[in-house]
Design brief:
Blueprint (H helix, E strand, L loop, with lengths): L39 H10 L5 H22 L8 H12 L4 H4 L23 H20 L28 H12 L6 H19 L4 H6 L5 E5 L5 E8 L5 E6 L1 H13 L31 H20 L6 H10 L2 H14 L4 H8 L12 H14 L5
Helix pairs in contact: 2-5, 6-10, 7-9, 7-12, 10-11, 12-13
Subcellular location: Cytoplasm
Keywords: Cell cycle, Cell division, Chromosome partition, Cytoplasm, DNA integration, DNA recombination, DNA-binding
GO molecular function: DNA binding
């Protein structure tokens, strides 16, 4: 165990001695490099710089690269650019139980600020799924460093490739009757005081976005009301769309149905905004409570939005328990397990069950990239908009 790093520290404050910085690592390439990296830290930072404009991706990539580099130095006493295939197998076993815990795991599994002396790279053992995700990201790191001419080879490329299994049928979604219970709970919320009216309006609008738009919680956080726009179809009819920046930095057009636009205008009027957003508007899709809107507003974080949704499900579950229904306990328990992503699954399931063309469901949810040619087929977009408008409703 190397004495140069008794306590792991964040990668941005890491300083390595010459024997651990990887300037002469055993896996270093000898040819021309495509990046100006003199050592492993420089190389990893160059890799991370590619995704710096995507907060979520950057933080996930940094976390995995940071953990491996710290482990390599503190546990093995060798630089990242000297790791072998066998080392990476040992690292994956380490992820399942990071020991010694006092060195690697934050006390009580708490998350501390990166500048806090109590910060640690882990909050506990990683699940099998999290281990796989970590190795996928590290494989991308090593592959990129090979392509950049920094490493001679990718030690993870020798790993056994498991055959892909068919994905299981979606089960984490709300049946229509249970979805109806959630809507009924929202409509039962008190509205006597100004703050209560804001809470009701926010709950109703957030569920509308997640369900009618099929949006991910992260997409609600990063996109704005200025991403709504209107264009005319071939017959001269005006149709509204939401231009969504989604997972993997991919954009997709979500049909802003007549019902979705009615809810948007309702929500905006309740908060004292013009009914329709302007093209350059930076107003967050979901507004914080009690804030005046005469100054720039920071959007709610994914965690905050998730808390709002979980609170709605918990309230609906409690309302079910107080009813006389014989199966209330099982249904209430299902609601308590639900998360914001269940609404996206519910949207997809309800659209498919409502006989909306599966290709249109795919495009609405952004499950697959459209081909270059389809960018010019506005008639297909218009048909998708029309059918989504007719067959996919929230019906408050």
């Amino acid at each position: 165990m190397h004495t140069a790093l008794l306590a792991p520290r964040p990668i941005e404050t890491l300083e390595l001695p010459a024997d651990l910085d990887g300037h002469d690592g055993a896996n270093r390439a000898n040819g021309r490099m495509q990046i100006a990296a003199a050592n492993d830290l420089d190389a990893v930072r160059a890799w991370l710089a590619r995704v710096a404009d995507s907060k979520s991706t950057f933080e996930n990539y940094r976390k995995e690269a940071e953990r491996l580099m710290l482990w390599s130095i503190a546990q093995l006493g060798r630089p990242l650019s000297s790791l072998t295939h066998e080392d990476l197998l040992a690292y994956q076993r380490f992820l399942a139980d990071p020991q010694p815990a006092e060195r690697w795991v934050a006390g009580g599994g708490r998350k501390h600020a990166r500048g806090d002396v109590r910060w640690r790279p882990f909050y506990g053992p990683l699940s099998a799924a999290s281990q796989r995700q970590a190795m996928v990201i590290l494989n991308a790191l090593f592959s990129w460093l090979v392509s950049a001419g920094y490493l001679a080879g990718n030690p993870l490329s020798l790993s056994r490739q498991r055959a892909r299994r068919a994905p299981p049928r979606i089960t984490r979604y709300l049946e229509r009757d249970l979805w109806g219970e959630v809507k009924a709970y929202v409509e039962s919320l008190p509205r006597e005081r100004a703050r209560e009216r804001e809470q009701h309006g926010r709950a109703r609008w957030l569920l509308t976005l997640l369900y009618l738009g099929g949006l991910r919680i992260s997409e609600v956080s990063v996109n704005t009301m200025g991403d709504f726009f209107c264009r005319r179809d071939a017959a001269g009819k005006e149709r509204w769309w939401l231009d969504v920046l989604g997972k993997g930095e991919r954009r997709r057009l979500v049909p802003a149905t007549a019902e979705l636009m009615e809810e948007l205008m309702r929500y905006r009027r309740e908060r004292g905004l013009p009914a329709l957003p302007s093209a350059d508007e930076t107003t967050p899709l979901v507004l914080p409570l009690g804030r005046k809107l005469d100054a720039p507003i920071k959007p709610l974080t994914r965690a905050a939005l998730h808390t709002v949704v979980k609170g709605i499900f918990a309230g609906a579950a409690q309302r079910l328990r107080e009813s006389a229904a014989s199966d209330h306990e099982a249904r209430a328990a299902q609601l308590e397990r639900a998360s914001a992503h269940w609404l996206r699954h519910s949207a997809g399931s309800h659209m498919a069950d409502g006989n909306l063309d599966l290709r249109l469901v795919r495009d609405n949810l952004g499950h697959a990239s459209l081909s270059t040619t389809s960018l010019y087929l506005h008639s297909d977009d218009d048909r998708r908009h029309s059918e989504t408008d007719q067959r996919h409703r929230i019906d408050w």
